[in-house]
Write a structure and sequence with these properties.
Layout (H helix, E strand, L loop, with lengths): L1 E5 L3 E6 L11 E4 L2 E4 L7 H16 L4 H7 L1 H19 L4 H14 L6 H8 L4
Parallel strand pairs: 2-4
Antiparallel strand pairs: 1-2, 3-4
Length: about 130
């Protein structure tokens, strides 16, 4: 376990254990608590992706969790923001990695959104 910060002042707790992570993911964030599977301990892009969700939680004064569960639109925006952070940290993202992100967004988050919409959102500079 370690403590890190988002926005330089808000703490996040990072726990490297599989028991807090949903089966099909390498990491999961609950509010300011981040769980990352032990084998991904050194994956900086994954950590920054999950820290983005912690930022969203702080930014919405903890409403992020409710909005994420209640609204597919909000969930899409939250995940696109986090995956953009993943791509930023990784630098160059090859075609296979990019397609993996698109497929993951389409298939693992219950978004019911087209591939074209995901591509459009991933390619905007918001």
């Amino acid at each position: 376990m370690k403590i890190d910060f988002v926005y330089k002042i808000f703490p996040t707790i990072i726990i490297y254990k599989s028991w807090g992570v949903k089966k099909k993911f390498a990491g999961t964030t609950y509010g300011p608590v981040i769980f990352i599977r032990e084998e991904y301990r050194n994956d900086k892009a994954l950590l920054e992706h999950e820290k983005t969700h912690a930022k969203q939680w702080y930014r919405t004064l903890s409403l992020h969790s409710i909005l994420y569960m209640a609204s597919k639109r909000y969930r899409l925006e939250a995940e696109v923001e986090a995956y953009k952070k993943t791509m930023e940290v990784n630098g160059y993202v090859n075609e296979y990695q990019y397609e993996w992100i698109v497929d993951t967004l389409r298939n693992n988050y219950g978004l019911e959104v087209s591939r074209e919409e995901i591509l459009k959102k991933l390619n905007t500079k918001e």
